[in-house]
Amino acid sequence: MRTKGSARDFWARLQSIDRRWIYLVVWLVVMVPLIFPFRIRPKATPPVEKLFEFIDAMPQEKALVLSIDYGPDTQAELQPMLVALLRHAFATHHKVGVLAMVLTGLGLGENALSQVASEFNARAATHDDSIVNGEDYVFWGWNTPYITVMLGMGENISKVFPVDYYGAKTESLPLMRHLKNYADVGILVSLASSSFPQAWINLAQTQFGVKLGCGVTAVSAADFYPYLNSGQFSGMLGGMKGAAEYEQLVEEGMAKAGENWRLRARGTEAMSSQTAAHLAIILFIIIGNIAFFANRRRKL
Amino acid sequence: MQRRIPLILVLVTGIFGALTFFIPHRTVQAADESMRNDVQRIITAFSLVLGVGSIVQHHLLKIRRKAEHWQYSYVTIAAIAISAIIGVFGGLDPARPGVLPTHIGSFSFHIQTLFTNMLVPLGATMFSLLAFFMASAAYRAFRARTVEATLLLAAAFILMLGAVPLGRMIFGPLPSFAEWILAVPNTAAKRGILFGVQLGIFATSLKIVLGIERGWLGGGGK
Fold first, then answer.
1. Does A112 touch chain B (CB under 8 A)?
2. Where are the domains of chain A?
3. pTM for the model
4. A262-279, pLDDT tens digit by residue?
5. Between chains, do A165 and B92 touch, taking CB under 8 Å as contact?
6. Residues near A33 by Cβ (< 8 Å), separated by ≥ 6?
7. Best of B96, B139, B201 to disrupt the A interface by mutation (most A CBs within 10 Å)?
């Protein structure tokens, strides 16, 4: 009798466990793999592979445009994508244009550009190998409203961004001589934590036919699959996993080209933490369900 | 008159905005470009002033009335003032200094430092709290009570395992199956929802342009 009562107590107590214990477990499963990471090599999924291959095969005269449509809240997932895309573009000698649709994305863009440019410049032997602002990339900055920016860039980018982020006249930059509007853009990738990629489809692709790709947070990735399947997006990176897969492809590509630099890949590093967190949540759901059904059976 | 002028403005600009997509004539396109590049930007600039004014007024009022958590309003106002002053007069970073000195010895407090060391960790912290709430909610509420809930639970398991490289180690085709769930059943459902939402947006926009829906004017559309 006593055993039956204590078993009932156990399941009831398990169901109403103090949430702080759950928080503690989540904290541990996230923190421990970050401190002692176990290396997991991600294998690229088709949407990631498509984007990588598209940029890889892009003609040299076509530029990659990156739109930073996210802020610091989602930078853990999206910043590794931005860094990996910049590395890919610079490694394949493509010109890059960067803009921000979200004001707080400006600082993130500046951080990523200075990080990747210094990675390449530290290993550059000649001027041709180095990454120079205004020659290899341009940071247009932020402008508003987004409709004006997205439509205006199809006509004249310099008119939408008369000065760049650093205050230089956009038209005076050597890169801008070959980057007038969407006709000179190979692909525009919107890295977003909101619905900006859809706005790019509506305004830039439908009107001017520019090729689009997107990098989005894991929670919103499901929203963009209809556009990926219809071919409106040439590829997509979804969440930290998408970032890690892209980092892997870039690393392999650079290694093939003799640039085996072993650069820090934050998306890949975080995969061990994400794996542990997902397993913990699955375990929580299983335990919660067992406790629920055990309790219900006793009540019947 | 107070209501008629905004209604006429919305009617004219709404119809004009739609027509420019269909009329490629140079005059119409030039007028459209001017509307987008000049008029919209001017309106947005005014809205920025309005936004800053509104937030400052709101917090000053909170402080004056000693409303709940009024102390935090000082933090908001101070953050707005400091970042605006440093942002406007302090330059972008040490390589691009402004008129205001933004370093004391080797300690720099230019706008990029403030952003990287304050806004980025604060924003990331707020978003990361989601993981804790999600774990707690999954433990308490995610129950296989019905067939539908069980299906949802199974899909969640597959997607969660498929979203990490370990999924492939457990069962090789799992990531491909997770990808299939996203690409086929998810897309089918999303497309249906999107069609409904877009038709709803179109109908509401049309009602606003034609002046049938007047809630945006204030006063409950009276």
1. no
2. 2-36+275-299, 46-264
3. 0.90
4. 888 899 999 889 889 989
5. yes
6. A272, A273, A275, A276
7. B139
